[in-house]
Amino acid sequence: MIAQRQHQLMAPQEYLEWEEQQLVKYEYINGEVFAMTGGTIPHNDIALNLASALKNHLRGKGCKVQMADAKVGISPQGPFYYPDVMVSCDPRDQRMRKVIYHPCLIVEVLSPSTEAFDRGQKFRHYRRIDTLKEYILIDADKMNVECYGLNENVKWELTSYSLEETTEDKIEIEVHLTSVDFRCPISLLYEDVVFPEDNLEETPND
User: Fold this and answer.
1) Low-confidence ranges of the chain (pLDDT < 70)
2) How far apart are CA 30 and CA 47, in angstroms?
3) Distance from C-alpha of 106 to C-alpha of 137, rounded to nearest angstrom
4) All domains of the chain, ordered by start, with CATH?
5) Residue 20 burial by CB count (10 A; 0-12/13-18/19+): exposed, middle or buried?
């Protein structure tokens, strides 16, 4: 998603009450609100592919899978963001109606306009969530997935996956999301996705 800054300052509770009345979604950072605009179709396809697979994997396990219409709060005072996909297995989130505060997994699908923010300030904010175990960045323009996870020393470390990588048996490598013990071929995340070099026709035919 792309955020457009709105020049107004709000307290956290004021933002939560105000946003309920709006026609578009707004993220909240340091008292400022940012309108969320639509992403691309590949962006949506990737998020839907992963959310659907996670939903099937976690069915009956006490976890909730959310997409971009659900916001996460770093704390009750904010910031508040709308991740592309997130999972919470925390009982405190099971009955929440407005904000998820205890996710174990957060996923962002990268776009050129938000990639630097997703890698930088947003990740620094997400790391303040004490239940978060894994942060995933998925490239929308090529098959590339970056998984940031907490290791045994409680340090964030990176595991990368790309389509070019194969196992010793020449089998397509699987992405492993350790926070929810989920595995899938990287191609599953990109099912039905059209990459820029494949998209020769930008406008509908007459």
Assistant:
1) 1-8, 165-170, 197-206
2) 27
3) 9
4) 39-191 (3.90.1570.10)
5) exposed
